[in-house]
Automatic annotation (TrEMBL):
Lineage top rank: taxon: Bacteria
Signal peptide positions (record): none
Transmembrane segments: none
Protein name: N-acetyltransferase
Amino acid sequence: MTRTLADLDWPLHTAHLTLRPGRSEDAEAVWPWYRLPAVQEYTTTLSLTLADHQAWWDRTLDSCVVGEQEGRIVAAGKVERQDAWSQDDVRAQAAGQQAEIGWVLDPAVHGRGLGTAFAAALRDIALEGLGVRRIEAGCFAENRASRRVMEKIGMRLEGVFREDSLHRSGRWLDGASYALLANERRPRR
């Protein structure tokens, strides 16, 4: 049986965060910081209104995880289970074998290690909770903060792709792709 986020025993805890599945009403709670230009610089979806943000948020709930600190959502992310690429005759065996993780934090909590803790928890949810064999994460290559987080949680750089990503500024930017196999993961300290 393929496990989903709904099958996990929530909430999950790190030293400083409580993680749980995202809910529709969370859209309004994250909107004040999610819409900030500093946050929107590297996010994939630009919502200009709360209504647009709500519609987008609701479409992501199957893969959405939020991180709370003292009852306030300070991080939002995803663990999106995916099929691995395969040849047609083994497609069923590749189904759901990998996951893409991603995250965004309230700028008010930057610099406290919460991004790394949240990303590590998403990694663990994918590898241990869902049992996938591979996780991936990507970002604009110039997003040094996200790249550092990926490296800190044990992911390896698999490639930097020249001008493969169109930024909403109109510039073509390099993209960076990171991954980690379940059998490469270092044990928790």
